[in-house]
Write a structure and sequence with these properties.
Length: 481
């Protein structure tokens, strides 16, 4: 930690590093060791209001910059992230526990959004509409929405920020970022790099606090915030939506999931096992697009279960900074207890453990496979958010689709099949915002990320991501003879 030049303990507001007016701090803990790695300023609602005021004051000048000027600032920021990739990755692993190789991948992934939207800034095209009379001209332009707030989760401390602020900054909006109390250090580190990149004061602000409820309420209810983007649980998303109603704030909500992973009897089983491992155990199962239910057709159920269990048993658990580790700790005790509860419930209702099934020392839990899972189990209805994979059995394609869609969530889904016709049928029938077909890793900056039903609304990444941070203005020119 002492050798990491990116460590910052204060919030970044209006181009300055500031303490909370109360001088309060909160501790950041390494989930792999339980050690306190830093103490960070603990801001109040009044402190955050000052950051919002700074962002609003900076907005007129920033939105007046050209798309190319904004793109150059973002390109500087992108280059600095890659230049400090190793420091960012190690910092990320220390505070959230994910293995170092995954953290390095997240730096690349997170930085890619800044690069992408730096380029998209110059492509926010409008329209000229054929007029309804000869003396008029009809034009549509896009303008920045205003001050944008981003409330981000701990499981992707860097990428969930850049995926939100990238389009906001590209569109000409100023931003206020509220990272989670579990992982503020990565957020502050990239704020430091944003400062070095040359963003004018007030354009980029990061507020840190242990009082998420109070700060969230301020970001929702403050009329100076025109746009709020949130990634987190569905219950919290509903609260934020309700709190934002008084100001009719524009919202993007990327909420919970219950991702199915379907293996049909014509699938490449080895490929399906590999895809399931990648999608289930990335970040120890603690991602919103992680597989939560594995559905396998009767004919290949036993073969898949055997190969999958063998692969899961071979995963190495440990501190994410150690060589060869593939699965790190749970983020906190609450997360560990949830995993235990889901496993105990499944076993009580007839599931059997084919590998794993036990808690280890600290916040670690064995990568686990549960055979003979059924829809009445808790793990079939809720995100386990941990290294537990329940395997369900199905008979027909129709049954698989019905089981997959039998949830209020609709974020990510996956299936494996060699039948092209089936691939089209199932992909179109799955009620999810994203579908991986013979692929377990689907996230990329060039494609839209988001869900349907109670997994939220709005899209991040891709050309569609800019639209959620812009307003459409129609202009009618009259008197043209």
């Amino acid at each position: 930690m002492e050798q990491n030049s990116l460590i910052r303990n204060e919030a970044y507001v209006n181009g300055r590093w500031v303490k909370a007016t109360s001088n309060k701090t909160f501790d950041v803990t390494n989930p792999a060791t339980g050690e306190v790695i830093a103490s960070v300023t603990d801001m109040s609602r009044e402190d955050v209001r000052q950051a919002i005021d700074a962002a609003e004051a900076a907005w007129p000048a920033y939105r007046a910059t050209t798309a190319k000027q904004r793109a150059n600032l973002m390109r500087n920021w992108f280059n600095l992230m890659l230049e400090h990739k190793e420091e960012l990755a190690r910092l990320m692993t220390l505070e959230c526990g994910k293995v170092l190789q995954e953290s390095r991948g997240e730096v690349d992934y997170g930085a890619s959004f800044i690069e992408w939207f730096a380029e998209e800034a110059k492509r926010s095209y409008g329209d000229v509409i054929p007029a309804f009379s000869r003396d008029r001209r009809l034009v549509v332009i896009k303008q920045s929405v205003g001050v944008a707030a981003a409330i981000t989760p701990w499981n992707f401390p860097l990428a969930m920020i850049t995926r939100k602020v990238g389009p906001a900054l590209a569109a000409g909006s100023t931003v206020v970022v509220k990272p989670p109390s579990e992982t503020p250090l990565t957020a502050l580190a990239i704020s430091y790099l944003a400062e070095k990149a040359g963003f004018p004061k007030g354009v980029y602000n990061t507020v840190t606090s242990s009082n998420s409820s109070d700060i969230g309420k301020e970001l929702c209810q403050n009329p100076k915030i025109r746009k709020l983007s949130f990634t987190g649980s569905t219950p919290v998303g509903k609260i934020l939506m309700e709190q934002s109603a008084s100001t009719l704030k524009k919202l993007s909500l990327e909420l919970g999931g219950n991702a199915p992973f379907i293996v049909f009897d014509d699938a490449d089983i080895a490929a399906a096992v590999k895809g399931a491992i990648l999608s289930k155990f990335r970040n120890n199962g603690q991602t919103c697009v992680c597989v939560n239910r594995i559905l396998v057709q009767d004919k290949v159920y036993d073969a898949f279960l055997e190969q999958f269990s063998e692969a899961v048993a071979a995963l190495k658990v440990g501190n994410g900074l150690d060589e060869g580790v593939q699965v790190g700790p749970l983020i906190n005790q609450k997360g560990l207890e949830k995993v235990k509860q889901h496993v105990e419930d499944a076993l009580a209702k007839g599931a059997r453990v084919t590998t794993g099934g036990k808690a280890l020392e600290g916040l670690f839990y064995q990568p686990t496979v549960l055979a003979d899972a059924t829809p009445d189990m808790l793990i079939a209805r809720e995100e386990v958010f941990g290294p537990v994979a329940p395997v369900f059995r199905f008979s027909t394609e129709q049954e698989a689709v019905q089981l997959a869609n039998d949830t209020e969530y609709g974020l990510a889904s996956y299936f494996y099949s060699k039948d092209v016709a089936r691939c089209w049928r199932v992909a179109e029938a799955l009620e999810y915002g994203m579908v991986g077909i013979n692929e377990g890793m689907i996230s990329t900056e060039v494609a839209p990320f988001g869900g349907i039903k109670e997994s939220g609304f709005g899209r991040e990444g891709s050309k569609y991501g800019m639209d959620y941070f812009m307003e459409i203005k129609y202009m009618c020119f009259g008197g043209i003879e």
